[in-house]
Design goal:
Blueprint (H helix, E strand, L loop, with lengths): L2 H10 L4 E3 L2 H9 L7 H12 L4 H18 L1 H14 L10 H4 L3 H17 L5 H21 L6 H7 L13 E3 L2
Length: 177
């Protein structure tokens, strides 16, 4: 939930939905939760994501807030402030929830880039690292274009909230860190 990133996306992709990664949010939440209550709060948070539909997700989130409000007011405040960011996935079809509530593909790609750049160690110049990282990104693009797609075109079409005509800007599905 980097404020600069959120602002840049809003400025360049009007109408984009911001979804915080549930794993990263859980880590942020646990940093303000007393260690003795981590298991209970984490279990309740995960139960929010296990719900079958958007209404149930919202209801379970309300139960989580009720659970922590008296015992942990700071946690309740943190949860309430992040509600829209961590539940944005509910505005999309259920079959894509698992793809949009986490940024695992981005992290996997970053690990692959890191693995390849670490093996080189020191690059002679900026162009050398740009060529290597560019090759990794091109390989990933080819895999998604020719092989398995993370989100297929038919799924993306169903996710489009505001179909466009001509030069209008689409509502964009955004993965977050």
């Amino acid at each position: 939930a980097h404020a600069g990133l959120v602002e840049a996306i809003a400025a360049n992709l009007p109408g984009a939905v911001w979804q915080r990664c549930r794993t990263h949010y859980a880590a942020n939440l646990m940093s303000i939760t007393p260690k003795s209550l981590w298991p209970a709060v984490k279990a309740m948070l995960h139960s929010v994501y296990d719900q079958p539909d958007a209404a149930s997700v919202q209801a379970q989130f309300d139960r989580l807030l009720d659970y922590v409000t008296d015992k942990l007011p700071a946690v309740a405040e943190h949860l309430d402030a992040a509600r829209a960011d961590i539940l944005a996935f509910t505005g999309f079809p259920k079959d894509v929830w698992s793809q949009i509530w986490s940024n695992n593909p981005t992290e996997r790609l970053n690990r692959e880039i890191r693995r390849r750049t670490d093996s080189v160690g020191i690059f002679p110049n900026r162009n050398a690292i740009v060529r290597l990282v560019g090759a990794v990104l091109a390989e990933q693009t080819d895999e998604w274009a020719e092989g398995r797609r993370y989100l297929g075109l038919e799924v993306l079409t169903r996710c489009r909230q505001n179909p466009t005509t001509g030069t209008e800007v689409n509502t964009v599905l955004e993965l977050s860190a």
